[in-house]
Amino acid sequence: MEKKVKGKTTIAILTGGGDVPGLNPCIKTLVYRAASEGIKVLGIRRGWAGILGYNPDDSSTSDRSIQELIPSEVRTIDRSGGTYLHTSRTNPSAAREKEVPDFLKKQFDGKEDVKDFTSHVLKNLEYLKVDAIIPIGGDDTLSFAERLHREGFPVIAIPKTMDNDVFGTDYCIGFSTAVTRSVNFVNALRTSTGSHERIAVIELFGRYCGETSLVAAYLAGVDRAIISEVPFDPKRLAELIMKDKKANPKNYAMITISEGARLIGGEMFLSGESDAYGHRRLGGIGEETGAILKELTGEDVLNQRLSYLMRSGTPDSLDQMVAVNYANTAIDLFLKGIFGRLVALSRGIYTDIPLSTITTGQKRVDVRELYDIEEYRPKIRHVSGKPMFLY
Fold first, then answer.
1. What is the extent of the structural domain holding 223?
2. Does the pLDDT of residue 345 top 90, yes or no?
């Protein structure tokens, strides 16, 4: 969708969902590039919660929700991880009463559990004179961005998630650092695992896509890798890992496992209530697998859930580069008046695709090409012709 951009313009930017390294370099570049083009930038704080909680009739909500961003304000934020704008998992199209500010609670009549506040968001964006919004997020954050696009509001989206599972792009901000962290921690754990001659089970983030477990195991030379896409038999895994342990002169073995992995016939390990996008908290499959392996093998097991360590700290150089280039690409699209697009990487080339693409499929590990379902380990059939991250 093209829309002529004229005169003094304003863009709004936000970050939603889980924080990842690379968000701050992206924010900084958006602000610096926009300033150089004479574009005003409004930062929406706490993801979609910021614009949902904004009340034009109450000035006290402005500071909590909206912040004008200028170069001097964001000059050093790229030196740290996380997100300067803060984040949330709020979904304005399906908000529960307890999740909305007091001034919106009166719209619930007691008969409905959730309410669609999309029209409220659109009115706020219009009131703030925002010409386009640039959300940075994963599937959930971008699904509401796609809703705004369908409602006719100008959107240019930037993909972010350490699972690297946004459909339509080879790469999402945060993935490289997550893999780098995972490889470093896996190798660091070799000292304790080897010293005690144990089996290590290392649980990594990855709800439906097991790419972090697969790639970390592939790069770190881990013995076995359990991924979200392939349910596993613990007895078979026990046999394989004992073979690995005996073949290792140091008498230890290591397994990576996606948090979304499942035993054959089992379910994901979930806890707590669902968030605004219908997701419950994952985690615990690593400890459960470790307990089963200990019972089956009689060996001591070291369980380690890397969890938020994967997404903490400063970004590596690849995530910095992609974040900066995605930001510049987004501003290029804005200046051209091209909206309803997702900034993307396709086989190593920066590009943009229809934002609606994210709803047309699911990005998962190509099991046939990249994984041995019998041996529970990466098996890269061939590298030639594949993109950098093997998708």
1. 176-312+366-378
2. yes
